[in-house]
Known about the structure:
The protein has one domain (6-230). Helices cover 46% and strands 15% of the residues. It has helices spanning 6-28, 34-46, 56-63, 124-129, 148-156, 165-175, 195-230, and strands at residues 71-72, 91-92, 95-101, 107-113, 121-122, 132-135, 145-147, 183-186, 189-192. The strands form 4 sheets. It has a 3-stranded antiparallel β-sheet. Strands 1-5 form a two-stranded antiparallel sheet. Strands 3-4 form a two-stranded antiparallel ribbon. Helix 1 (6-28) runs antiparallel to helix 2 (34-46), helix 1 packs antiparallel against helix 7 and helix 5 (148-156) packs across helix 7.
Amino acid sequence: MPKRSKKEFLQKMNEQLLLLEEFSNNYDEGKLIYATEMAVKLRVLFGTRDNPKDALLEQFCKIFIENKPDFLNDAIYPINMPLENESKFVRCNLCQYQLTHAEDSSIFLYPVPIKSDKHKYNAFNTWWRKTTAISLGASEIENNILFRSDVVTLIANKEGAHVSPEISKSMALLNRNEANPLKIDINGKIYSAKLDEIFSATIRQIVYETLITLKPFVSKVEGKYMFQNNS
């Protein structure tokens, strides 16, 4: 297969970012099924833990001789919470929760992305493979910490294809509904968040961080390319 030109790489990268933006807008309109579509595009951009060299960003930076940019990291670590390996419930560092009224007037916890204005940035490898996104809780659970790369892989490969052995047990745990979601006691009534919505909100947050980071980066690279080819 012939190698892509720089122009083709720019077109491909801009196309992926436009699709991510479109899918995220659909998600924000309440179409949560777009979480899977977003995860697939993130996998195209960043690859998987087992195949990082196939990632579009990796190839893009290589052909343009650019270092990967530092990525926006909005992960939060609430105070007065048990340590990750001591908690007995699924905790997410990339989403927050709001009480929402359903159509039948019941109230439930709804996970939403953080989208803060902190503007803290980390090197790509730290952001993608070393910062906890979700903890499945309970120290006796093997591989109970999921990084951004793990969450994207789990959602993009719901049927289990191409999932590394390191996180396959986490997937089995989730599929058996044996992980406990966050529950909050308000005036003696327990409200809980749905696990699938926690994962969807996490994917949406990763997309938010990705767009904030990559749109100006790609624009800068494209500007340099246009200048070099028009001078």
